[in-house]
């Protein structure tokens, strides 16, 4: 079995005979953008499907534009995404945006997460955010990310966000 076909099957993609024959060409076309990668939802209504076509059943529907999701596989115009809870499914690429956002998450037994004026955790406290807040991800470096939202713009520890990989640099 061709290595690209094995990769597609490992991703849970059921292939027709025509798609299986085209698998090597498809895999070579991919690679324009890295997989996995974080993106956000473009719309307030995004259906997540069991497979990469509108013929597959809808597993659930997201109802919040801007929510960060991780692309974990690609097939034609479809993207297999994973949410912050680890659930995955397929969405059409037009429902996704390259805009980077992040979901604030708190350590156990903590109700809020501090956002600081500077990336060192020093300086003025800008805000205290509750877990689940969606923030625009402006930049990340040296373990700190600059995030912004309706009433805040400051720095947070990168480990307290879902939507940026550990040690990922975003300029």
Please characterize this protein's 3D structure:
The chain is 12% helix and 40% strand. The radius of gyration is 18 Å and the shape is elongated. With 171 residues, it is mainly beta. The strands form four sheets. The protein has a five-stranded antiparallel sheet, with no helix packed on it. A five-stranded antiparallel sheet has the order 13-12-11-8-14, with no helix packed on it. A two-stranded antiparallel sheet has the order 2-3. Strand 5 and strand 6 (88-92) form a beta hairpin.
Give the helices and strands, then pairings:
Blueprint: H1 3-10, H2 17-29, E1 37-41, E2 46-49, E3 58-62, E4 68-75, E5 78-82, E6 88-92, E7 96-97, E8 101-104, E9 113-116, E10 125-129, E11 134-141, E12 144-149, E13 152-157, E14 161-162
Antiparallel strand pairs: 1-4, 1-7, 2-3, 4-5, 5-6, 8-11, 8-14, 9-10, 11-12, 12-13
Sheet with the most strands: spatial strand order:
6-5-4-1-7
How much helicity do the residues have? 10-25%
The ordered string of helix (H) and strand (E) elements is: HHEEEEEEEEEEEEEE
**Largest sheet features:** 5 strands, antiparallel
Work out the radius of gyration: 18 Å
């Amino acid at each position: 079995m061709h290595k690209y076909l094995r990769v597609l099957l490992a991703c849970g993609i059921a292939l027709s005979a025509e798609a299986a024959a085209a698998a090597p060409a498809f895999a070579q076309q991919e690679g324009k953008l890295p997989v996995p990668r974080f993106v956000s939802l473009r719309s307030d209504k995004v259906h997540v499907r069991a497979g990469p076509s509108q013929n597959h059943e809808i597993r659930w529907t997201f109802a919040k534009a801007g929510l960060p999701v991780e692309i974990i596989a690609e097939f034609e115009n479809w993207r297999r995404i994973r949410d912050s809870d680890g659930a995955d499914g397929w969405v059409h690429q037009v429902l996704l945006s390259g805009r980077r956002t992040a979901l604030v998450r708190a350590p156990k037994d903590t109700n809020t997460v501090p956002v600081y004026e500077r990336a060192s955790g020093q300086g003025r406290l800008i805000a205290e955010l509750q877990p689940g807040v969606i923030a625009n991800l402006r930049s990340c470096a040296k373990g700190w990310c600059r995030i912004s939202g309706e009433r805040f713009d400051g720095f947070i520890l990168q480990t307290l966000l879902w939507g940026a990989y550990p040690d990922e640099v975003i300029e």
